[in-house]
Amino acid sequence: MSVEFDQKIHDTLANASLQLAIYTATGRLKEKRIEVTAENVLPDYQELRTQANALKKHTIDNLDHYLEEFERNVEAYGGKVVYCKDATEVSDFVLDLAKRRGSKLIVKSKSMTTEEVDLNERLEHHGLESVETDLGEYILQLAHEKPYHIVAPALHKTRYDVADLFTKALHVARETVPEKLTLIARGVLREKFLKADIGISGANFLIADSGAVVLVENEGNARLTTSAPKIHVAVAGIEKVIPRARDLAVFLKLLARSATGQLLSVYTSFLAGPRRVGEVDGPEEFYVVLLDNGRTRLLPDRSKRESLYCIRCGACLNTCPVYRKIGGHSFPWVYSGPIGAIITPQFMGISHEPALPFASSLCGACGEVCPVKIDIPKVLLELRGDVKKMEAREGQNRMEKLAFRVFAWVMTHPRIYEMAGRLAASVAPAGDGKWIGSLPAPMSVGPMKAWLSERDLPPSPSKSFREMWRNR
Amino acid sequence: MSRDNILHKVRTALGRSAAQAVADVPPVRLRVPEAAMEDRIALMMARVEALAGKAVRVPTMEAAREFVAGIIAGKTAVASNAPYLEECGVTGLPGVRSGIREVGELTEVCAKVDIGITSADYALSDTGTLVMLASPAESRLVSLLPPAHLAVVPVERILTGLDELFTILPNPAAQTSSMVLITGPSRTADIEQILVRGVHGPGQVTVVIVG
Ligand code: SF4
User: Fold this and answer.
1) Who contacts A411 (Cβ-Cβ below 8 Å, separation ≥6)?
2) Distance A336 CA to ligand 1 centre (A)
3) Residue B173 and residue A207: Cβ atoms within 8 Å?
4) From the CA of B172, how far away is ligand 1's center (Å)?
5) A341 shares a domain with A435
């Protein structure tokens, strides 16, 4: 485990108010999801999940076909598709476009894909102003932070944090009421929308048979981003494509329910090309950036390929006991929680943070709630295998191997196991559960320290199970 | 150049060759339930109200005009170019700007007025949704920039839900560059999960069902 990962986890666990914020926010989202996916509310929920999974599998297995169909249709409606292999290509494209059109101000709606490539930072580095317009993302931009959660990006910020950020950056009188803070942001951002020449959005879905970008949101900032400026650029991962418009009947029923517990999000925009002849408003230019950024790297593996089915609903985060303790910023990249644990190592390479696939209890909750039925625990296990293979190659784990060999030997020899149990019981004082803390080295220092510092053994019983069984 | 490179990588990874045919897309069953018009109307109204929108039903186009006049009373409004609004007489009400066909003017007006008035191409009763297709009749900004959105919708446009919408409109892109589904007032919960309405889009949505 890297020192940074370890430290961030430690800090999060030690911060009581943050713990409460994560627990409450994820708990609420989770409850709402359960309400609207219940058998009596949505009887075909399981069937929809199966259909969504089949559609994603079919599309990813034939991805080149659907990308080309998508591209043809975008062009048929007067838009343009730009393939980019990485962050530099995306920012180069936008910079060049801005330069050619003489644009200085860009408005952005929420997009995890642009977070992935640090688009704002790159554009601002070249003197452009690129403003996040989703309230949560705007708050984070002012705080220079990454999203804490795929769906609720600023869930770790209190109203007082937001008040401080707004007072400092916007020179406004300090307000701490969420309604008033929201109004301040509305005012500032409204002006940006009306002045900007370029609007950059993400995409929840790309529709192959329509050449359309579909955006799902609650605030209206994605609508403004794609309606007011003269140019709309959508940035999407290549895996976002689905075959037909009608497939949305499946995905839209699942997405909002899984994400926020709504039947539908407030706004679903289905955008196919620039404004057409006769239409009163809308952008004059329409671009879709299709981003690879590591995605093609995980396609060859038939089994782990399903990681690309994700529709970024965040349900796996809300239900994950690990995410709910260690929060979003402990994760080394923009994607957190179970989905982050499986896609980060695959997009970035497993050596990026080898501890990541192990940051899970494999309880299976994530796989159960996933609306597209990604078998996250299975992928995690396979990635653990990959990490172990890598480590074996690098010969880092001799100690651990030895420990497991001893463990295996003890477990397969009942008499030895019993003796070991009695030995442990005689060392551990029964009752107070502070056993580990009271131990001297090597348990409270050394390699086990991080794991043990937040845990203790339960008090040891006076009789072992095996003894009770014999005496029953 | 990245195009061919990426497509090549995808094909190699999947073991496919260029222009190789694909199997049929897995079937998606769209279910359009039988639902009497009265039930659709009742559900539509209940859903809109549950989202903190307002829903009213009026018997005739004249009654719709009266209702809208009452809402506007002293405020300013912009109306879309939907023929139905003109038929109802809404566009002729005092304080209502309409007939704008130039984007600069439309943006300016929409950014100033209190209410944006539109019709809707469809409504979905299952979810309390308005379906708006951009066209010469309906723009994008009228239902977006003003702090309040009022939609006047004849009953026969009320569908059951998404399945029915995609059954009768399997290819929206053939008709419009923009189809937007509006389900309640704009909202956010980004600060401490506290629900605030009207963050970027209209904080008030009123649906007037006619017939
Ligand atoms: S992996 Fe599944 S549950 Fe997690 S965010 Fe993606 S779609 Fe949602």
Assistant:
1) A417
2) 11
3) yes
4) 28
5) no
Among B112, B177, B180, pick the best mutation site for testing chain A contact (most A Cβ within 10 A). B177
What domain count does chain A have?
3
Collapsing DSSP to helix, strand or coil, A146 comes out as coil
Residues of A in contact with B177 (CB under 8 A): 77, 271-276, 279, 282, 286
Q: What one-character DSSP code corresponds to residue B24?
A: P
Query: Are A4 and A45 in a shared domain?
Result: no
Q: Tell me the CATH number at A157.
A: 3.40.50.10420
Bond preceding residue A229 cis, omega within 30 of 0: no
- Taking CA atoms only, the protein residue closest to ligand 1 atom 2 is A370
A375 shares a domain with A260 = no
Query: May I ask the CATH architecture of the domain B36-210?
Result: 3-Layer(aba) Sandwich (3.40)
A270 with B173: Cβ contact below 8 A: yes
Residue A84: list chain B partners with CB under 8 A: 2
State the DSSP H helix or E strand holding residue A189, giving kind and residue range, or none if neither.
helix A178-195
Q: List chain A residues with CB under 8 Å of B200.
A: 133, 186, 189-190, 193, 219-221, 223-224
Q: Is A267 on the interface with B (CB under 8 A)?
A: yes
**Cα–ligand 1 centroid distance for B150 (angstroms):** 36
Are residues A74 and A21 both part of a single domain?
A: no
Q: Kindly state the helix (H) or strand (E) to which residue B49 belongs, with its residue range.
A: helix B37-50
Determine, yes or no, domain membership for A302.
Answer: no
Phi, psi of A322 (to 5 degrees): -75, -50
ipTM here: 0.98
**Same-domain pairing of A405 and A391:** no
Atom of ligand 1 nearest to the CA of A307: 1
- Structure confidence by residue, pLDDT tens digits, A178-211: 999 999 999 999 999 999 999 999 999 999 999 9
Residue of the CA atom closest to atom 3 of ligand 1: A370
Confidence of residue A256 (pLDDT cuts 50, 70, 90): very high
Question: Which residue among A268, A293, A318 closes a domain?
Answer: A293
Q: Is the CB of A339 under 6 A from ligand 1?
A: yes
Distance (Å, rounded) from C-alpha A51 to C-alpha B181? 22
Contacts with B100 from chain A: Cβ below 8 Å: 280
pLDDT of A307 strictly over 80: yes
HSE at residue A355, side-chain half, CA atoms within 13 A, is 13
Domain that holds residue A406: 399-471
Nearest to A282 among B134, B181, B202 (CB): B134
A41 and A24 in a single domain? The answer is: no
Q: What is the pTM of this model?
A: 0.89
Structural tokens at position A470: 């014999």
Residues B131 and A293: their CA atoms lie apart, in Å, by 35
Give me ligand 1 centre to Cα A252, in Å. 14
Token pair in block for residue A45: 């929920």
Residue A300 in any domain: the answer is no
Same domain, A162 and A204: yes
**pLDDT tens digits, residue range B80-139?**
999 999 999 999 999 999 999 999 999 999 999 999 999 999 999 999 999 999 999 999
- Asked if the structure places residue A417 within a domain, the reply is yes
End-to-end CA distance of chain B: 57
Residues A229 and A115 in one domain: yes
Judged against a pLDDT cut of 50, whether residue B18 lies above it is answered with yes
Q: Where are the domains of chain B?
A: 36-210
Does residue A339 belong to any structural domain of this protein?
A: yes
